[in-house]
Amino acid sequence: MVSADTLRLLADIGFMATSGGFSPQAQSMFKAIEQARPDSVLPHIGNALNSMNMNRHQEALDTLEKKALKLEPENPTVKAFIGMALMMLGRNSECERYLNGLTDSDDSLAASLASNLLVELKEQASKKSSSGLH
Question: Quick one: average pLDDT of 19-45?
Answer without folding.
Answer: 95
